[in-house]
């Protein structure tokens, strides 16, 4: 690619304009290493491609941080956004309401797992999780039980970067500097079959890793407000795909011990796993669900926390201390709601769930050959996501985790081929917008094949 190297070809006007832009005031996430390459300028997007100011094309293989599902700059979504902007760009949501918020809530209720009946809006995935944690705790308190303030979370969890969401996430480089201000949680095993937490063979086990959750719930049931999980796919923790029995087990245990089950479907919602919501794989409904990312088709920041009627009713009171005092300036932003409604239209019109399932079929057809590479320890596939866990040695399964420098190294190699992949350390994954064509999927998998054929694990 010729990014930042204008000498190699004739520059477009746009590229020349870009050269005048001073980037030195920007503070980008994740790119403060002195040796990190400069962020890639993007001028426009169309379908599955992003274009640099000089016209280089990059296939967006991770849906721009997992948000995009219908492709970039989709005419139908553009129009919905423009139409709404001409009507009402924003109004505060306390004491006021508007049509896009009401219509979106009704549309969501129609597709959400059974029992989720009340829609609370916020701004992004982290705040959707914060809201769920706060709702769960106040739900108990409003009923006179203020002992229930602990949350059970899973190993390898990632729920966002705000303080509550960080507290509920696994300890990592992301959370380490803030440890003194994070609240404590109880941590149960995740069903990470490739590195089984209870050292069993996943082909013959009885989901024994669930026992840890049972032990915690039985020992602390009077103090636990809820269990928070990323159903079926723990994403940032390494694209860990679950057996659906684990998810069924979580629901069963929450019922048995009378605690709330919170599903963080910020990533998995809206078809990414081949079902509208990942909870459907196990045929269960949570008490609270957190949504964001693909909610707006990847266009606008918007969060939703949906709750059961039972939870909502615990807040209904003339005693103002029972009110849920949580609201953001941009709660239920009409532009975001309008584009989310249009995204739901497209999900149905484009038969997106069928499309995701056909992506999964292609991934499965290429599994054996991908698995055969020297450094591929495990191949995990669920819906529109394929992940390769790379290991230095297949016998020892040694790898460096999220901070492993193989991640940035491979990202650079793929970018040079016009492909945006951004491994989570040693976990290389591909998660495209659903509208990607079959030949494009095969092209990406060919690139992965080709790179893994010749690439050598860096010497430590
Ligand atoms: N929850 C899950 C499962 C996520 O994957 C993420 C982000 O990747 C979040 C929450 C946080 O979402 P956001 O980045 O919109 O704050």
The radius of gyration is 22 Å
What CATH first level of the largest domain would be assigned? Answer: Alpha Beta
The CATH homology group name of the largest domain: Type I PLP-dependent aspartate aminotransferase-like (Major domain)
Helix-residue proportion: 25-40%
Tell me, briefly, the overall form: globular
Strand percentage lies at 15-25%
Q: Number of helix segments?
A: 14
Structural class: alpha/beta
Major β-sheet profile: 7 strands, mixed
Ligands and ions found: pyridoxal-5'-phosphate
How is the largest sheet built, in terms of strand order? 4-12-11-10-7-5-6
Mean pLDDT: 95
Unreliable runs = 2-8
* CATH topology description of the largest domain: Aspartate Aminotransferase, domain 2
Q: What string gives the helices and strands in order?
A: HEEEHHHEHEHEHEEEHEEEHHHHEEHEEH
Write the layout of secondary structure elements.
Layout: H1 13-19, E1 44-46, E2 49-51, E3 57-60, H2 63-66, H3 75-87, H4 99-111, E4 116-122, H5 125-142, E5 150-154, H6 163-168, E6 186-188, H7 211-220, E7 224-229, E8 233-234, E9 240-241, H8 244-257, E10 260-264, E11 288-291, E12 303-308, H9 309-313, H10 334-349, H11 352-365, H12 367-371, E13 376-382, E14 385-390, H13 406-416, E15 419-420, E16 427-430, H14 438-454
Parallel strand pairs: 3-15, 5-6, 5-7, 7-10, 10-11
Antiparallel strand pairs: 1-2, 2-3, 4-12, 8-9, 11-12, 13-14, 14-16
Helix pairs in contact: 3-10, 4-10, 7-8
Bound molecules: pyridoxal-5'-phosphate.
Residues 124-126, 129, 158-160, 230, 235-236, 264, 266-267, 292 line the site of pyridoxal-5'-phosphate.
């Amino acid at each position: 690619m010729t990014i930042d190297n204008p000498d190699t070809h004739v520059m477009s006007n746009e590229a020349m304009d870009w050269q005048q832009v001073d980037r030195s005031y920007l503070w980008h996430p994740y790119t403060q290493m002195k040796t990190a390459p400069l962020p890639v300028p993007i001028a426009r997007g169309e379908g599955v491609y992003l274009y640099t100011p000089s016209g280089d094309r990059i296939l967006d293989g991770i849906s721009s941080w997992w948000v995009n599902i219908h492709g970039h700059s989709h005419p139908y979504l553009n129009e919905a956004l423009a139409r709404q902007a001409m009507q009402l760009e924003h109004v505060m949501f306390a004491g006021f309401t508007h049509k896009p918020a009401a219509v979106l809530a009704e549309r969501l209720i129609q597709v959400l797992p059974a029992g989720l009946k009340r829609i609370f809006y916020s701004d992004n995935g982290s705040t959707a999780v914060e809201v769920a944690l706060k709702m769960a705790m106040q739900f108990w308190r409003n009923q006179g039980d203020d002992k229930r303030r602990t949350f059970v979370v899973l190993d390898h969890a990632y729920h966002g970067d705000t303080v509550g969401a960080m507290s509920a996430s696994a300890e990592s480089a992301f959370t380490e500097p803030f440890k003194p201000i994070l609240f404590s949680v109880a941590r149960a095993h995740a069903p990470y079959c490739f590195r089984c937490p209870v050292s069993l063979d996943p082909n013959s086990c009885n989901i024994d890793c669930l026992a840890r959750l049972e032990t915690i719930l039985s020992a602390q049931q009077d103090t636990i407000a809820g269990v928070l999980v990323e159903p079926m796919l723990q994403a940032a923790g390494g694209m860990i795909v679950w057996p659906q029995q684990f998810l069924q087990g979580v629901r069963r245990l929450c019922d048995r011990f009378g605690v709330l089950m919170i599903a963080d479907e910020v990533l998995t919602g809206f078809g990414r796993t081949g079902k509208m919501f990942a909870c459907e794989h196990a045929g269960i409904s949570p008490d609270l669900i957190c949504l964001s990312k693909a909610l707006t088709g990847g266009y606008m920041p918007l969060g939703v926390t949906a709750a059961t009627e039972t939870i909502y009713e615990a807040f209904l009171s003339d005693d103002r201390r029972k009110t849920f005092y949580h609201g953001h300036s941009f709660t239920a932003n009409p532009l975001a709601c309008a584009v989310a409604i249009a995204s739901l239209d497209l999900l149905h019109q484009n038969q997106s769930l069928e499309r995701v399932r056909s992506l999964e079929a292609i991934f499965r057809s290429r599994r054996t050959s991908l698995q055969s590479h020297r450094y591929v320890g495990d191949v995990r596939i669920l819906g529109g996501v394929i992940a390769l866990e790379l290991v230095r040695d297949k016998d020892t399964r040694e790898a460096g985790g999220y901070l492993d420098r193989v991640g940035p190294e491979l990202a650079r190699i793929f970018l040079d081929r016009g492909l945006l992949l951004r491994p989570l350390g040693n976990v290389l994954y591909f998660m495209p917008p659903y509208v990607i064509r079959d030949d494009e999927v095969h092209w990406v998998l060919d690139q992965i094949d080709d790179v893994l054929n010749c690439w050598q694990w860096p010497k430590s």
